[in-house]
Automatic annotation (TrEMBL):
Cross-referenced SUPFAM superfamilies: L domain-like (SSF52058), P-loop containing nucleoside triphosphate hydrolases (SSF52540)
Keywords associated with the record: Coiled coil, Leucine-rich repeat, Nucleotide-binding, Plant defense, Repeat
Residue intervals of the Disease resistance N-terminal domain: 7-91
Domain NB-ARC: 179-299
Basic and acidic residues compositional bias, start-end: 826-849
Any GO MF annotation of the entry: ADP binding
Biological source species: Triticum urartu
Bias (Polar residues): 799-809
Residue ranges, annotated region (Disordered): 796-849
Protein name: Putative disease resistance RPP13-like protein 2
Similarity annotation: Belongs to the disease resistance NB-LRR family.
One Pfam family named in its UniProt record: Rx_N
Length: 849
């Protein structure tokens, strides 16, 4: 039920913003909004409590109430967004002074005022209706004592108890870990006579922590005067926990302990007295809050073992089974002695990790249910979809929404709820997968909470049931063998917020405007290349709520001019479409809320400087002066063709204004390294820099004119087609640089004309060098000598960074497509390099690609 709490958060924030707007100056609206916010905040508090436990632990009336609150919050948020859409400025006049345009402008203003009046009337009615529903739900909350029932009906039987009571002969492959744990316990006990010892076993759900702890406990418990193995709940009652421990320690003495009324302090004193002169072993199973376990401080060399979801001792990997253990496990599975049911138990175990998440992470994790099994999910795609749905709410001042979303992604990865794939050379996760068992859990929860509907062609979904369930998200997956319009009646589902297609479906695209409050339309990977003329994207002009439009790898030929009407659009992704989309319509520059714009090799229209909310931009730029207006940019991939010296200077001056820039990749015709590097070195947040020139510039300067404090945050630096070796930077510059790629003549390095010393770069870990082989050269001796010089440079560096070299002839010119291909090739080489380095292989002389 925490999805309801997740849906409530953006609504409360939007209503709060509405109070600050000019539209709330009408007393009736302002008073109603304040009253509604108060009621919703009370509901939100109850929903957060409900969201900490599985649904089966609540009475039916609690679940019904939470479901109604969820629908109320969705409905009200749609009403607020619709109101804002209606009063949004529908055009941006450029100050024309002729009479015809002035008349048009007057009529537009009059229409706008009329529309605002109508919209204000509609929002007033919607707020009054929501107030009435909220009051009714509030009455129901009190009548059926929802707060009281929100504590649940007690903890369900923990499926891990099967592991606790499993006989040791049934366990396979645990002997080594058990004996290792016992050795640590017993050896440590000998060394620490008279001191309390604690040990934690930590890892993700289902890894086998309970089984390991119980196996060790059973083997050594005879060595202690008193022992106890106690399992606790997610929200432990300390009084009950102490009673459990006392009963386990001495069942005869504490037979009636549960019937005695004693408070927390009395039980703790009793426990201390009982253990005072004894050697004891206590195992506390399933601890989720470390602060709850700062107790039991006595002497006499006792051992206290606890395990749970904390960060002291990690059990984060299981060694492969031996051949004998694998055979034993195989026969146990094929010829079981008892009944099955392990899949359900594992889902229950995994659900503990889900319900331990804060509400915002629950909603973000649940969104992964829309992706197919074993699907590789790009990190950036996922985060921008989260933002479009409103799952990522503003954090600390100055923190971009994407960076906040990235922290959500990393937290899910740290909790092992998603599996990282494609870790780049800088150690950043580029994509993830969801384990099959986790995905099964998410799909089950998603269906229960009416969060999303998955259509995979299995025949289990029927169009009528889908339309009646009021599903908010639809995922059409690859295995569908029939058109989606046969499964879904789009005209009866105006409430849908996300539509994700994994297979091209032109019929659905033509009906897409039926989804009146659609926030996310993701067609990534739906290849319309066979019949691109049949794809008419003009239908999207009616999707006025749209925040995310994903057209990557669709091969659509034309972006409609009507796209300028989507005033709420935040993400427009046209990457990896080759040369399909040749021209981007000028109306794109009206999308002032755009934060992500990727048009790949297409030309960006004039007026791009209007998009002052942009955080990430990729494309060909014509007017470089406008770039300096995009002060929110964090990521820039820029193709620019031009040899005009004054325009080159304007480009670099514009780049110097982008103080939030973190990742910068530039492809230009020519470069002035002495000037350009100096300006770029002053960007305070720059972490990654890739510079390309289409025309080879084999000449070089002795040093760059940069200060010792240049590039303070740079971690990755790659220069292509011009000389820029490490020794050209002064000591003190690039203090955090870990990865460097540079280009140089092999003859210059071999002959000593070019110094490749890198000892002044203290953080360097990885070096890649492109050795230019001059035309007509047939001797390998020069390359071997250059390689030897480079190897000596890395060997004498304190970090002994890894070295890769490859050869290239002098290219006279490279196209943007060729450069992109090389960039991808280098990225793939980095992945292989990083993987080999992690395996401990020698990377000094890797094979050339």
């Amino acid at each position: 039920m925490d999805v309801a709490a997740g849906a409530m958060t953006p609504l409360i924030n939007k209503l709060g913003s509405l109070l600050l707007d000019e539209y709330s100056q009408e007393k009736r609206v302002r008073k109603s909004v304040k009253s509604l916010i108060t009621e919703l905040e009370m509901m939100h508090a109850v929903l957060r409590k409900i969201g900490t436990k599985p649904p089966e632990q609540f009475d039916e009336q609690v679940l019904i109430w939470a479901g109604k609150v969820r629908e109320l919050s969705y409905h009200m948020e749609d009403a607020v967004d619709t109101f804002i859409v209606r009063v949004e400025d529908v055009g941006h006049d450029r100050g024309s002074t002729n009479m015809k345009n002035r008349v048009k402008k007057f009529l537009k203003r009059a229409t706008k005022l009329f529309n605002k009046g109508k919209a204000l009337h509609h929002i007033s009615d919607a707020i009054e209706e929501a107030q009435w529903l909220a009051k009714e739900l509030g009455d129901l909350r009190q009548r059926y004592m929802i707060e009281e029932h929100a504590n649940g009906n007690g903890d369900a039987v923990d499926p891990r108890l099967k592991a606790v009571y499993k006989h040791v002969t049934e366990l396979v492959g645990i002997d080594h870990l058990r004996d290792e744990l016992i050795k640590k316990l017993c050896d440590g006990n000998q060394r620490s006579k008279g001191q309390l010892r604690t040990m934690s076993i930590v890892g993700s759900g289902g890894l086998g922590k309970t089984t390991l702890a119980k196996a060790a406990y059973d083997k050594i418990k005879v060595q202690f005067d008193s022992v106890a193995f106690v399992s606790v709940s997610r929200n432990p009652d300390m009084t009950k926990i102490f009673k459990k421990i006392l009963h386990e320690l001495d069942k005869s003495m504490y037979t009636t302990i549960n019937e005695v009324a004693r408070d927390h302090e009395q039980l703790l004193d009793e426990l201390r007295k009982f253990l005072q002169d004894k050697r004891y072993l206590i195992v506390i199973d399933d601890i989720w809050d470390e602060e709850a376990w700062e107790f039991i401080k006595v002497n006499r060399g006792k051992i206290f073992v606890k395990w749970g979801k904390m960060d002291e001792i990690l059990l984060n990997g299981m060694k492969p089974l031996t051949e004998d253990d694998s055979e034993r496990l195989f026969y146990k599975r094929i010829f079981p002695q008892g009944k099955g049911g392990s899949g359900k138990d594992m889902q229950r175990i995994l659900s503990f990790s889900y319900y331990d998440l804060p509400s915002h992470l629950k909603t973000c994790l649940l969104y992964l249910s829309i992706f197919p099994e074993d699907f590789e999910i790009r990190r950036d795609r996922l985060i921008w979809m989260w933002i479009a749905e409103g799952f990522v709410q503003g954090g600390k001042q100055g923190t971009a929404l994407f960076e906040l979303g990235e922290s959500y992604f990393n937290e899910l990865a740290n909790r092992n709820l998603i599996q990282p794939v494609h870790v780049n050379a800088a150690g950043k996760v580029e994509a993830c997968r969801v384990h099959d068992m986790v995905l099964d859990l998410l799909c089950s929860l998603s269906s229960e909470q009416n969060f999303a509907t998955i259509l995979d062609g299995s025949g289990t979904q029927q169009s009528k049931s889908i339309s009646h369930r009021k599903s908010r998200r639809l995922s059409f997956q690859n295995s569908m063998s029939e058109p989606s319009t046969n499964l879904v009646d789009a005209t009866s589902m105006p409430q849908v917020r996300s539509v994700v297609l994994f297979k091209a479906d032109i019929d659905l695209i033509q009906n897409i405007s039926c989804f009146q409050v659609l926030r996310v339309l993701d067609l990534e990977g739906c290849d319309f290349g066979r019949n691109p003329d049949d794809v008419d994207l003009r239908y999207i002009k009616n999707l006025l709520h749209l925040r995310y439009l994903g057209l990557r790898r669709t091969h659509v030929r034309e972006l409609p001019v009507e796209i300028g009407k989507l005033q709420f659009l935040e993400t427009l992704d046209l990457a990896d479409n080759g040369s399909s989309v040749a021209v981007i319509p000028s109306s794109v520059v009206r999308l002032r809320r755009l934060m992500f714009l990727d048009v790949a090799n297409s030309v960006l229209p004039a007026g791009i400087g209007n998009l002052t909310s942009l955080e990430e931009l990729k494309g060909k730029l014509v007017d470089v002066k406008e770039l300096g207006q995009l002060v929110e940019l964090r990521v820039l991939y820029l193709f620019w063709n031009g040899n005009d010296e004054s325009m080159c200077n304007s480009l670099v001056v514009s780049l110097g204004k982008l103080r939030k820039m973190q990742r910068l990749t530039i492809y230009v015709d020519r470069l002035q390294p002495e000037v350009d590097i100096q300006i770029l070195g002053k960007l305070p947040a720059l972490r990654s820099l890739w510079l390309w020139t289409s025309q080879a510039q084999p000449t070089h300067v002795e040093t760059f004119v940069v200060g010792a404090n240049a590039f303070p945050c740079l971690r990755e630096c790659r220069f292509f087609n011009f000389h820029a070796v490490p020794s050209m930077f002064p000591r003190g510059a690039m203090p955090r640089l870990e990865i460097m790629h540079f280009t140089a003549r092999a003859s210059d390095i071999a002959g000593g004309d070019l110094s490749v010393g890198m000892g002044h770069l203290p953080s360097l870990q990885q070096v890649t060098v492109c050795l230019w082989v001059e035309k007509g050269s047939t001797s390998d001796k020069c390359n071997e000598e250059a390689d030897a010089v480079l190897r000596h440079a890395v060997d004498t560096h304190p970090n002994r960074p890894t070295l890769q070299t490859y050869q290239s002839s002098h290219p006279d010119r490279a196209s943007p497509a060729e450069s992109t291909s090389l960039e991808l090739d280098l990225a793939e080489r980095d992945k292989v390099h990083a993987a080999r380095t992690r395996r401990g292989q020698d990377e000094t002389r890797p094979p050339l690609p």
